[in-house]
């Protein structure tokens, strides 16, 4: 379940980010968007959702006027020539949870997009305000890019800006300058290769002489990483249904990753008990933390309401 | 008349010891011998080691495994913890008291250690907690304005709240906001029982120190007395207090324990931790002023990896061949020490120690594992921190009753 436009806007308001919002008919292109908001004194953005050959995904968000050459970008990322192409339509829905024509840097608020690399045009910094879609292509919001940074930091993302028009040579002595933008984890879509069940965690490079005992728990720890990495969208701390959904999402993600051909063969009838224990072990402290924050949030809401009541009685 | 348990001649901050000179007080932790000798410290201070049987008892009383910091000897010393457990077994509750001196906005993992442990104690024993933010202390000791120290207190409160304390059982207060009323009455009572010479002896104050410093100790002492919190503990003057803290805070509470019976209160009990070593090695505790001595909760994934790889002192050998031959020196290896704090799985830690110590595992691999663990810890903290609003801080710090504090 992805975040909605309302959740995003709530979030921006909580962060005390100033933005202007404009509703309009569905727009699928920058030209169409320009018809509605092009004259309102903010820079339009174009947003590309890209994928490389190793199933790693990128959002390139640039001023509509910036020239973006995918071949150059591919080389600068260290993906060789032609390593980057537009991501398939299913990926938009699966990973970014947005419809066609709605790619936006804000899509990284979604848990599913946590491994998507975000490249921001440094041209944004020269603009007073820039337009982006807030997870819906029936609306555009304009904000200063420093506020976009604030939002990104609030979800644990470091905003990184790039001169997208630069074309440095990449060769033996000049390493690809954008190599750090390549995500360490690939994202597997359900209909792709059969390895899809467990995402490849590139951090665990196979080590030659590591004692066998270490490997299993290392993998287990990483799977835990997979299911726990991301953000507590604040809405799931206020809304009971979303709270439960988040818990179920995390639990089922872990569950699915634990039930594989190998583990079925290994544990057979015991698999249920083994997986049950594993879930408890890995999710217990995370879920308890989520629950205490839910409680604290609810208490705070009541407290605020109570103090306001008290004040208004005087 | 010396204070309880202290060696004759006092356990003052500036006393010379036989071999290595150790200085351990709230404002300085150093040892001329390099490493802190904790046995000597326990001996000098006169507190007790936490022995394994106490851990078993805690497990029985709380119905859950003891916290990783107990299992790994991070919290290793105490005063009267057995009395607390005895009383608890009889059905007598207690409350927790811990605190932070908000001297900087940036908190590092070492700062979180007492709070992580206190959260465990709150959950395991189901008891209330008061958290003191000594903004006045930082104002008095550091070059800070009153407003700045108050602002830092609030910022630090957010990181503290992010450790997961239960708002229905926790009261956070800053001295500048709270001192007064019943709290101040207790401060005056404590102050009347402690001579100038005494505080000079305990804390090392001299004639050149301003009187703000000299009169501060009662402020940190009185949260140990339930009557300091009339909105929480009315009618419960008999309630015991347990103070989880780092062992350098012991002097404050030695003083407090000395005074308590004279004014009719239980002596507060203490449970004390060793120092979280700096990345560069065990010569003291982490310092907020050197960014590379510690992993901060605001560090990015890149920063953490970098700091561990570049600055974490390694006990491994200089070369792979030597490492395979001789193995690593676990005594001084920082990554292994850090793992002993943050890697929950006892079996995995044992395995790493064995493999690394024998040379089958390399420094790089241990550092990689540590990076994974710390990144996860920091990430989790950051997410929780993002969920703390200004209103939540206000609510935690509001003077309000906590009717469910023992539930």
From TrEMBL, chain A:
<dbReference type="Pfam" id="PF04073">
    <property type="entry name" value="tRNA_edit"/>
</dbReference>
<dbReference type="GO" id="GO:0002161">
    <property type="term" value="F:aminoacyl-tRNA deacylase activity"/>
</dbReference>
<comment type="similarity">
    <text>Belongs to the PRORSD1 family.</text>
</comment>
<dbReference type="InterPro" id="IPR040285">
    <property type="entry name" value="ProX/PRXD1"/>
</dbReference>
<dbReference type="InterPro" id="IPR036754">
    <property type="entry name" value="YbaK/aa-tRNA-synt-asso_dom_sf"/>
</dbReference>
<dbReference type="InterPro" id="IPR007214">
    <property type="entry name" value="YbaK/aa-tRNA-synth-assoc-dom"/>
</dbReference>
<protein>
    <submittedName>
        <fullName>YbaK domain-containing protein</fullName>
    </submittedName>
</protein>
<feature type="domain" description="YbaK/aminoacyl-tRNA synthetase-associated">
    <location>
        <begin position="26"/>
        <end position="151"/>
    </location>
</feature>
TrEMBL record, chain B:
<keyword id="KW-0436">Ligase</keyword>
<dbReference type="Pfam" id="PF00579">
    <property type="entry name" value="tRNA-synt_1b"/>
</dbReference>
<dbReference type="GO" id="GO:0048608">
    <property type="term" value="P:reproductive structure development"/>
</dbReference>
<dbReference type="InterPro" id="IPR014729">
    <property type="entry name" value="Rossmann-like_a/b/a_fold"/>
</dbReference>
<dbReference type="GO" id="GO:0009791">
    <property type="term" value="P:post-embryonic development"/>
</dbReference>
<keyword id="KW-0963">Cytoplasm</keyword>
<keyword id="KW-0030">Aminoacyl-tRNA synthetase</keyword>
<protein>
    <recommendedName>
        <fullName>Tryptophan--tRNA ligase, cytoplasmic</fullName>
        <ecNumber>6.1.1.2</ecNumber>
    </recommendedName>
</protein>
<dbReference type="GO" id="GO:0005524">
    <property type="term" value="F:ATP binding"/>
</dbReference>
<comment type="similarity">
    <text>Belongs to the class-I aminoacyl-tRNA synthetase family.</text>
</comment>
<dbReference type="InterPro" id="IPR001412">
    <property type="entry name" value="aa-tRNA-synth_I_CS"/>
</dbReference>
<dbReference type="GO" id="GO:0005737">
    <property type="term" value="C:cytoplasm"/>
</dbReference>
<dbReference type="GO" id="GO:0004830">
    <property type="term" value="F:tryptophan-tRNA ligase activity"/>
</dbReference>
<keyword id="KW-0067">ATP-binding</keyword>
<keyword id="KW-0648">Protein biosynthesis</keyword>
<dbReference type="InterPro" id="IPR002306">
    <property type="entry name" value="Trp-tRNA-ligase"/>
</dbReference>
<keyword id="KW-0547">Nucleotide-binding</keyword>
<dbReference type="InterPro" id="IPR002305">
    <property type="entry name" value="aa-tRNA-synth_Ic"/>
</dbReference>
<feature type="region of interest" description="Disordered">
    <location>
        <begin position="1"/>
        <end position="24"/>
    </location>
</feature>
<dbReference type="GO" id="GO:0006436">
    <property type="term" value="P:tryptophanyl-tRNA aminoacylation"/>
</dbReference>
